[in-house]
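job 3f2a | input accepted
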Amino acid sequence: MDIDFVVIWVDMNDPEWKKEFIKYSGKTDTESNSVSDARFRDYGFLKYWFRGVEKFAPWVRKIHFLTCDQKPEWLNTDNPKLNLVSHKEVIPEEFLPTYNSGVIERYIHRIPGLAEHFVYFNDDFFIIRPIQPTRFFRNGLPCDIAAFHYNPSWSQWYKMLRNNIRIINRHFDKKEVMKRDYDKWFNKSYGSRARQNYLLKPYGKFITLRTPHNAQPYLKSTFEEVWEAAGKELTDTSANRFRDQSDYTQELFRTWQICRSNFEPYNTYADTKMFPLLIKSKQAIKAIYNQTYSLICLNDNIHIRHYDEVMKKIRDAFESILPEKSSFEL
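job 3f2a | predicted structure (330 res):
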């Protein structure tokens, strides 16, 4: 089974990118209600993403590097495993440029040559110890956790997740899905994270699922099916150049995949961890040194104190486990 990786990236220090951003946002910098430096800034760790893939997941068939016609100066574009992809190749012209990751994500299935089985990464998700294909796919299906999670609806993100669920409830009957896939929804490996599955079993509608913030396995055919069912909604909101509470997120495709029974139960939290660097930078650094997890997310924040010092310590930690250049570096 061929498995590809897809990673999206942007260089916000690029003068042309800044010029376009100012033109469309009306802002003189990247700070607004819908965009922040923390979402876009590159603190130089992308090379460790590539090093981690090459060292710990050498089985990957192809890496599709999706950007707005940008690339790091150190990237070896002659690497046969690398496919540079422009937004222009996958996103309709009328929606470009876009600064909305949700719009970019909904079109990734259009990447030329993308395998049916692929894993989607943000550039702040890192592999830090050996990982096998079976971590992402078993029996030809994505590994995932089907567990409900309370949605307080207090932020833009949670409102977008509710938008996803409205589409899901139009196309799936919760009681039928959970009855059909009882062993998948009540899998023992989930532990206490599936508590709400039991509490909400009698409830007739889907609510938001847990959304582990890390590398996500997908079937390309899932995206094609969702587009066939909800193409109007996805097309209409593709006009949102910046995040908007009317948007849909990649979790729509993930939840659809789960409701279609196209997944194998796996407690994603068992070997993945998100570290909000604002409050858990020390824990993140320790996890990298000790290779505590297979996958980690380093969640940036504009309010991190002593930012440069924190980033240096993280870089030192990466260098301790990934000191050698990868073949993706010049």
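job 3f2a | Residues 32-36 have pLDDT under 50 and may be disordered.
job 3f2a | closed
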